[in-house]
Prior knowledge:
The protein is mainly α. The protein is built from 16 helices and no strands.
Amino acid sequence: xxxxxxSAAAARVARLDWPFLIASTLALAVLVALVxxxxxxAAAALLILGFALGAxxxxxxFSFTASWRRLIVRGQADxxxxxxxxxxxxxxAVVPVAKLVPGFGGAIAPLGPSLLIGAFVFGIGMxxxxxxGSGTLYTVGGGSGRMLFTLAFFIVGSxxxxxSLPAFLNMGGIDPVLASDYxxxxxxxAVTLASIGVAALIIVAIAKRRGANxxxxxxxxxxxxxxxxxxxxAFIAGGHPWSVTFGxxxxxxxxxxxxxxxxxxxxxxxxPGPAHALQDSILGDTASLTDLGMIFGAMGAAAFSKPFAPGxxxxxxxxxxASIGGLLMGWGARLGFGCNIGAFVxxxxxxxxxxxxxxVAALGGCVVGIKLRPWFGLSRD
Length: 381
């Protein structure tokens, strides 16, 4: 090895933020050891997959929030098409397996006021916070002080949403509609892929009419393939599509109980899934496992490539937007049955009609959120 090469390698090593790199790796190792000792190899897989997802999102700069904003403001279809590619890849596994293999299921939800209102409110929140459910996790892991506020208020909003959800469900609605229920596993997949193709054609037509870019960036395409593969892995390990925001609700519920607020008798928390999650360890909740993995994965990726959290502390108005955005996303995610990942990506990839309805309602919320951004000193772009 030449002296020049040795010097470059030494400089590279010196730039690593060793304390955070070691801390993130050690945290993952401890959590994996805990679930393996408890005889939960699938939980260990979800932690590792979450770690990889956090690193992948951070390194490829894969962002639903920014790509949606560019689509609305400039008509750009480039990175949004990368998101549709991700969904199509995931659907190829989720739709047929959820229909054919016992023990597996898709991300499904009823169609009604709760879905529409929740998604719309979530869309407002994601533009104020400048991040969605997954975006909050990987930016917190990457060292964003601003997004710590978003995460904290996301958790609060999730608990409030859990208390609100039963009342909104009582407003009525339609049972979940799945393509595979009408067309079978392979016909359902064909219909799902066709719906994604139609959406892509519409987005491209809008971009061309506005003279905007339609070619996804290379890092976004790489991110789409890598993240989709990891999502399929999480689907296999967990038995259902990857979700994010239920983990926040569980964390909030447990914190409320620790603070002396007994929410266990609230209707949402008497349902079998939430009741079990509230009583069990967070390491027994699949969403919490991937959430924790994402935070530590992004932390490790950030520490590996640059000093951790090097940016200045954001201004007060920006922190206010982050807090309001987190609160709205938490509440909206519970009413809307998830975020960009659990409701849109997971829903559409499952062939569930609610995924597209969530997208349209959330996009409308994003329009409102973008208009509100300048009030908090944030750019509309």
